[in-house]
Amino acid sequence: MKKTVLITGATSGIGEACAHKFAEGGYDLILTARRADKLAAIKAELESKGACVKTLVFDVRDVDAAKAAVESLEGDWQTIDVLINNAGLALGLDKEYEGDIDEWATMIDTNIKGLLTMTRLIVPAMVKRNKGHVINVGSVAGDAAYAGGNVYCATKAAVKAITDGLRIDVAESAVRVTNLKPGLVETHFSNVRFRGDDERADNVYRGITPLTGKDIADVAFYAASAPEHVQIAEVLILATHQANGSYIHREL
Ligand code: NDP
Ligand code: 8X3
Questions:
Q1: What's the pLDDT tens digit per position in 43-79?
Q2: How far is the centre of ligand 1, averaged over its atoms, from the C-alpha of 158 (Å)?
Q3: Ligand 2, pocket residues at CB < 6 Å
Q4: 18 burial level (CB within 10 Å; 0-12, 13-18, 19+)
Q5: Other CB atoms within 10 Å distance of the CB of residue 171
Q6: Is the CB of residue 139 less than 8 Å from the CB of residue 180?
Q7: If DSSP codes are grouped into helix, strand and coil, which group holds residue 55?
Q8: pLDDT tens digits along 215-252
């Protein structure tokens, strides 16, 4: 039987890699993000390889837009087997007492409230069907704060609590809930965090072989492919030579 995955933040990094992985695994794909042109290019590429793809352009911070997008789905597209709540970002690495209040709001609205909005919109139908899987992209950053991580780390700690809470709330059903907690993954993440300073972004991955989006997509696909009675609740995925959110051994 065909399955459908909805991936938020599918235009880059981990989300884009998940799109490729789940397409290879035979899933139909609903890909969402804000950049319509990038979504269209990824859709065209995946369709050229035989995948069935629908794109929805919206900002996860915009509840009305998210609701309209989900409600625009028709027919079989309404049956979402796997929701990957991946859209997210870090902005800055400033000390908490010097941070930018607007940037804090952007992180909280995207990483926490956007994830909650998508969960609220999609999980009721999963519970009703007694089938489904929510994969939230948390982070090692949610395990403990690191220097300058403050608000970003707090959003990922919130993802952990929200994921654990959902797992309790759907426990009566066969819906499964997973928290993926990657460490250093080389994507566009650091370019966004350092507001387009690509040199500073590159330095984050200096002296260590970082994870790739594909590494995380492989774990997401593994979790989604586990037998129905197996719930991969949480996975911490670190690069070799990274011990936790703060300790990284670099060969420089
Ligand atoms: P990227 O910057 O490469 O990708 C982020 C994705 O999120 C893009 O597709 C972007 O699409 C989307 N996005 C951002 N804001 C919004 C929004 N408001 N509405 C809709 N989509 C949005 O970063 P990653 O792939 O690395 O990040 C993906 C997730 O992984 C994030 O939640 C991040 O916190 C988490 N993570 C990343 C790690 C890393 O080291 N890279 C490690 C641990 C977790 P668009 O701009 O088109 O909207
Ligand atoms: C992204 C990984 O270590 O930069 O969540 O916070 S880290």
A1: 999 999 999 999 999 999 999 999 999 999 999 999 9
A2: 16
A3: 139-141, 149, 183-184, 245
A4: buried
A5: 11
A6: no
A7: strand
A8: 999 999 999 999 999 999 999 999 999 999 999 999 99
